[in-house]
Specification:
- The chain is an alpha+beta fold.
- The protein has a single domain, classed as 2-Layer Sandwich (Alpha-Beta Plaits).
- The protein is built from 7 helices and 4 strands; from the N terminus they run βααβααβααβα.
- The two termini are about 15 Å apart.
Length: about 150
């Protein structure tokens, strides 16, 4: 089983669509094994987006992510990284098809409403940035695998 990191950015809470966005991951069969509402500080957001430092959109990305609380979560499942990325859709919302989270909800590319790890290595790094090991709650479905 893989784990991946997802962050629902301030726009999700501002638009009151957190439940709808979270339900898409659950309906795909991904399990939520950690979830928290936080207001990240600048150091955390800079660490999270370190690979974008120096790019033209970096400061706006930081400002937007720091503009309000975010929902950080860890999803678990088979091919979790791929599944979460496919559900979120391409970063450029003009290329995100209907049915994806970005295709259905994003209004601007640089004020994107969701982040999903793009690889297992990124997922491990991002999970470690946002969660302590004791905050992760693995669990088994009492009814067995239904998906």
């Amino acid at each position: 089983m893989e784990r991946t990191f997802v962050m629902l950015k301030p726009g999700v809470l501002q638009r009151r669509i957190a439940g709808e966005v979270l339900s898409r991951f659950e309906r795909k069969g991904l399990k939520i094994v950690a979830l928290k509402l936080i207001r990240p500080d600048k150091a955390l957001v800079e660490s999270h987006y370190a690979e974008h430092r120096g790019r033209d959109f970096y400061e706006k990305l930081l400002d937007y992510t720091l503009s309000g609380p975010v929902i950080a979560l860890i999803l678990e499942g088979e091919e979790a990284v791929f599944s979460a990325r496919r559900l979120t859709g391409p970063t450029d919302f003009f290329e995100s098809p209907p049915g994806t989270i970005r295709g259905d909800f994003a209004a601007r590319t640089r004020l994107n409403i969701v982040h999903a790890s793009d690889s297992l290595a990124s997922a491990e790094r991002e999970i470690a940035l946002f969660f302590k090991p004791e905050e992760i709650c693995p669990w088994e479905d009492d009814n067995g695998r239904w998906y």
